[in-house]
Amino acid sequence: MLSRLLKEHQAKQNERKELQERRRREAIAAATSLTEALVDHLNVGVAQAYVNQRKLDHEVKTLQVQAGQFSKQTAQWISMVEGFNQALKEIGDVENWARSIEMDMRTIATALEYVHKGHLQSASS
Q: Where are the stretches annotated Disordered (predicted)?
């Protein structure tokens, strides 16, 4: 009877150990599965961040090229405007020169008229 009780006790202990071992393996498998799921989820976020960073790098390069082109075009426009301003100044200088010549010619014409009238009056007297 004692040996039977001992055997039953040992059998129950073995069952409990097996049950405990099975639960331990299940817990390890569940923890591994959870860890893999978390890592996969994290990797998706990291992969998306990497893709976004590559897109941003491409956009930055494109923007740099466009900014350089815009800078060159702006420099050309500035050069053209400066040339136009210089041409306008030269036109203004020619206009002033023409006015000055016109004034001199009027002065000379007036002087010639005065001299011519003086000659006519002295010849008729």
A: 1-21
Q: What is the pTM of this model?
A: 0.49
Query: One-letter amino acid identity for 85?
Result: N
In angstroms, the CA 71 to CA 65 distance is 10
What confidence category does residue 89 fall into, taking pLDDT thresholds of 50, 70 and 90?
Answer: confident
